[in-house]
User: Fold these one by one.
Assistant:
Number 1:
Amino acid sequence: MKKTCVRILPPLLAAALIAFAADVSVDYNHHADFSKYHTYSWLGVHANGLWQDRIMSAVDSQLAARGWQKVPSGGDATVSALGRVTERDTLETYYDGFPGWGWRGWGGMGTATTTAVPERIGGLTVDIFDSGNKQLIWRGQASDVISSKPEKNEKKMDEAVEKLFKAFPPQGKG
């Protein structure tokens, strides 16, 4: 029994970590023929200075892995990316006193203290347009792409971009 748990637990933990790494969503033009796109050019990356090169590098890597070639201008498709960081508050409540319970009939002398803890949330949107007609053909969005530890940010963002492009290019023309 113990050997079974030891063998099963690591893959389950890895799957859980991957599942919670980034929340992604992808949509695309179901009438676009993705087999006609082989080259791409960048329209631009809008993000803070450190992230521009990281985002471009991660997207370039994913597109190259799928056979797309980057050209300075005039590609079959045009890529644009937007990286943003917002801040939201997470409420944390602490109960103290003795016995500390104060609900469902359990009386007690205690207090509750709620504090707002600011949390940084990173998001990334990657758009791909048909260069000829300027129509959006693919959009991928990822949230939770930054870590509270700066040394992990690049890896977390790379994982999010990899997850975005997992099923790229879409198969078949609708």
Number 2:
Amino acid sequence: MSMRRKYNFPVKRIIVWINAVNVRNFVAQFSGMSAVFTQEDVLIEELVDNIPGVRLIVHNDDVNTFEWVIQSLVDICKHTHEQAEQCAYIIHYKGKYAVQEGRRHQLSPMREQLVDRGINATIE
């Protein structure tokens, strides 16, 4: 009976993962950071960034106009004018709406741009 384990992930991914840990620890050490990253930290971060089905939620407020929200959704989320208008109405009447769905690393910049424009947005 063999004591070798069979893993369900490619060896190349393990090497990249370990190298990412080494690079982050090197940067932390020489940039004055006291934190040391572990392999688990890198793996968890990678898993969280790649979770499919994460949603960009825009919340209703009493500050932004329909026109501003619509224009922002067209500019940032690349909606058509009609899509953005429908989203704005749903946000107004329901209180919030998922305007985009994807992976966290794709939605984070969109969320930041919306927040920079004064629109309350979260990722769930």
Number 3:
Amino acid sequence: MAKTWVLETQTKGTGANMVPLDSALKKPGAQAVPGFVFRKLEPQAADEPEVHPHRFKIVDVMTRQVLAEGVDARVAICVLDDVRSIVDVSVFVWEPTAERWRLLTFGETRLLWDHRGRARELARA
């Protein structure tokens, strides 16, 4: 009986080999390295990480005066209501893992800036 041949593309390099279909269908586990085994994965603990609301610090760029520190997003947006321009303040967020204030990027600051005026409307409702 004639053998069926297939093109094996699993070779390294630029070429491919013609191999019998029987050898191409063999499971890769049969060619395992002796003495090598993967460790069994243990299920991860279902501990839920503590969720803390973001705390913000807003500093006036010209005077370096702290306008607000340790406030939530709603209060930070209310403080930004009184600011003339987005470039007049530096906005920081507290990073609890690093235990330091991180300066927000311009895009992140813009997200807060775009919500100005809405916080007071929500407070009235």
Number 4:
Amino acid sequence: MEATNSQMQLGSGGKILTVLLGGHAYGIELLDSKEVIAMMAVEPIPQAPPYLLGMINLRGRLIPVMDLRIKLGITPSPPTPESCIIIVDQKGRLLGALVDALIGVTTLEPGNYVDHPNLGEQVHVDFLKGIGKQQNDLIYILDLDKVFSQSMELETQEAL
């Protein structure tokens, strides 16, 4: 895998919000994240898909919250004191993503990013924008448009 300059590098200057999911680091472009909030009560929605935990009332706004572990096929785990909700702007709509923990903001140097990795036909990584390398660790950079739009598409299909 050869490192390339990418839209991610240009759009956010390589800055990503890094979170922990199932013991692995995942990144969200900093420009896509609006805020990080502590875990709070999530009201379930009847007949919602398993990854859609429900809704929160954040300062008068109703925001759907998805469990990223379930959405990405990682074994679910109950929230811990380190769990938090990342509020993201997905095409003008605020959505929440439950993660295991916030690691922080990381800046990836241009040579430490692989755009849209190709891991073979058997490995589906459509939800990844790329992979960042930070020292000896890998950071899977999420393509929120694909993560959330696939979610919304599935919700629509299940509602029909």
